[in-house]
Amino acid sequence: MSIFSMTKTLCKSILHGPYTVQYPLKPKEKYERTRGRIEIEINDCIFCGMCSRRCPTGAITINKPNQTWSIERLSCIQCNYCGEVCPKKCLHMANEYTTPSYDKVRDEYARVSDNQENN
Amino acid sequence: MGKRTIIPFGPQHPVLPEPIHLDLVLDDETVVEAIPQIGYIHRGLEKLVEKKDYQQYTYVAERICGICSFMHGMGYCMAVEEIMNVEIPERAKFLRTIWAELSRLHSHLLWLGLLADAFGFESLFMHSWRLRESILDIFEETTGGRVIFSVCDIGGVRKDISNETLQKIAAIMDRMEKETKEIADVFLNDSSVKLRTKGVGVLTKQQAFDLGAVGPMAKASGLSHDMRTTGYAAYCKLNFQPITATEGDSYARTVVRIGEVFQSYDLIKQAIALIPEGDIKVKVTGNPNGESFMRGEQPRGEVLYYVKANGTKFLDRVRVRTPTFANLPALLETLKGCSLSDVPILILTIDPCISCTER
Amino acid sequence: MDQSVRVITSGELLGESLTLKNKGYRLVAISCTNKDGMELTYSFNKDYELVNLRVITDTTEEISSISFIYSYAFLYENEIKELFGVNIVNMAMDFKEKFYRISATTPFKTEKEEN
């Protein structure tokens, strides 16, 4: 029966300092595989609709006559199923996650035939 | 014959990780009977099979529970692979085993912290969870997420682990084994822990068999029943024995879980030494047709998956029987005759995961 | 892992479960599927072998509960009665359809149009 068995661990932790990351003073390090928001290269997209059919939550909508691709940011679960089935490989996953917001946010990307920039 | 009162042990309680309601019938501070009531987080996940096809359902199956999330995904994928007669590559089996044993480690360390918090030993709670953080960092580095991995798929796994990362994981396991020995020493030898757990909630071997207890709850009473010995995934190539104890009280269950933590460190190092090269995924086409039963071993006990398919891309039925559902009658039996202050400890010793129970 | 499925009638259910209990089997789970009638599947286990008994019925026939043989079967039977509407009688602890307290009654009972 020992009474003060925790003293060794407690002394070590006093001398070590804080074990946690001092966020937000220091940024949290990310690994290269950390999942985040979905980004699209809109000029490579052929609007086949595979990503919108496979999405488990139905977050992606495609409008072929208008040539737009839109995603509902708060419904996306960052699983990357769309990125795997895309035939042109124009979807990839960035490292930061979706920014928080109050309302539902729908991001729309349109393909413009004259210039080469995203919307 | 004292005075009979009924006290609700409500869905909100500081010691419970998830909501469950018990009506305790008391006889002057001794519990006579307990009547359970669940259903606070029933989400109807089994009805979603009508709307999501069988490949999208992998993502739903992982989100049944946060603590045992990888094992739910793995169990569902193994059941569907058995219906479709798909043989996954060897490297995928070893990778699934490594992630499954890491899940078991993080679940047991979480439970040890909650048990220390239940009797007010806050510094031990914080140190157990500090050890768990190293494992969550390994998950983020290899799969991309800390809690929900989305890495298991029908036909194999979606991401590979390189050999340097595997050697780094083996080195982390060695370091953590030394640090866990200090914490385990406090759990097993400190006098305040022993006074709260020895002799509390005794379940004999015959009672454990008659009530259908599974997992560490049954192992602490002497029933040696571990589904990993049947050899699914890569367990047929690893060398281990199930850990049992004989007294059947809460102290014995703590001893069994700490033993499983050290056993998992050893199993991960064995798997890293034996992993072969090769593919990680096999392409799967067509629709499943047939039914299968698949049993696995989650950190809390034996889990059963029943999947029935009919040839279209939507499944007929997915049924999950989780270990906490099987341990509830054993909980109701151990509560009879204990005093009111022991009730939180007893509820925590079955390791309740109510979101698994209610899906 | 060895598994087997055997179809029996609802009258033979009590006799078969008592035989299995005397041989040392434990009850693992009771599952229910709504396809061509209600299929109740009782799964028993001993030494890592799985034996399944299947009873095909509908929602009007009375199925006797096995909770006096296996005392913990009442949890599974209450859930099946509430979600599927199968008529199980003589349960050891009967919650009278207030186990989960969901707002829809027997959600799995309606026929699915997609098969």
Description:
The complex is a heterotrimer of chains A (119), B (359) and C (115). Chain A is of the alpha+beta class. Chain A has a domain at 30-110: Alpha-Beta Plaits. Chain A is 17% helix and 17% strand. Chain A has helices spanning 7-16, 50-54, 81-85; strands at residues 38-40, 60-63, 68-72, 91-93, 106-110. In chain A, the strands form two sheets. A three-stranded antiparallel β-sheet of chain A has the order 2-3-5. In chain A, strands 1-4 form a two-stranded antiparallel ribbon. Residues 114-119 of chain A have low confidence and may be disordered. Chain B is an alpha+beta fold and 359 residues long. Chain B has a single domain (4-358), classed as Cytochrome-c3 Hydrogenase, chain B. Helices cover 47% and strands 14% of the residues of chain B. Chain B contains twelve helices and eight strands. In chain B, helix 2 runs antiparallel to helix 3 and helix 3 (90-118) runs antiparallel to helix 11. Chain B is globular. Chain B starts with a strand and ends with a helix. Chain C has 115 residues and is of the alpha/beta class. Chain C is globular. Mean pLDDT of chain C is 78; it is low at 111-115. Chain C has two helices and six strands. In chain C, the strands form two sheets. In chain C, strands 1-4-3-2 form a four-stranded mixed β-sheet. Chain C has a two-stranded parallel ribbon with strand order 5-6. The A-B interface holds A 1-3, 5-6, 8-10, 13, 19, 31, 33-35, 54, 56, 77-81, 84 and B 52, 55-56, 59-60, 123-124, 127, 130, 133, 140-145, 150, 158-159, 182-183, 185-186, 189-192, 194.
Question: What keywords describe this structure?
Answer:
B: about 350 residues, alpha+beta, Cytochrome-c3 Hydrogenase, chain B, three-stranded antiparallel sheet, 8 strands, about 45% helix, globular, C: alpha/beta, Beta Polymerase, domain 2, two-stranded parallel ribbon, 2 helices, about 20% helix, disordered C terminus
Compact summary:
The complex is a heterotrimer of chains A (119), B (359) and C (115). Chain A has 119 residues and is an alpha+beta fold. Chain A has three helices and five strands.
Compile the SSE list and pairings:
The complex is a heterotrimer of chains A (119), B (359) and C (115).
Chain A (H helix, E strand, L loop, with lengths): L6 H10 L21 E3 L9 H5 L5 E4 L4 E5 L8 H5 L5 E3 L12 E5 L9
Antiparallel strand pairs in A: 1-4, 2-3, 3-5
Chain B lengths: L3 E6 L11 E7 L3 E7 L19 H6 L6 H16 L5 H29 L3 H22 L8 E2 L2 E2 L5 H27 L1 H7 L7 H7 L4 H4 L30 H25 L14 E10 L2 E10 L6 E5 L1 H12 L8 H7 L4 H5 L1
Chain C lengths: L2 E6 L4 H11 L2 E9 L3 E9 L2 E9 L4 E3 L9 H11 L2 E3 L26
Parallel strand pairs in C: 1-4, 5-6
Antiparallel strand pairs in C: 2-3, 3-4
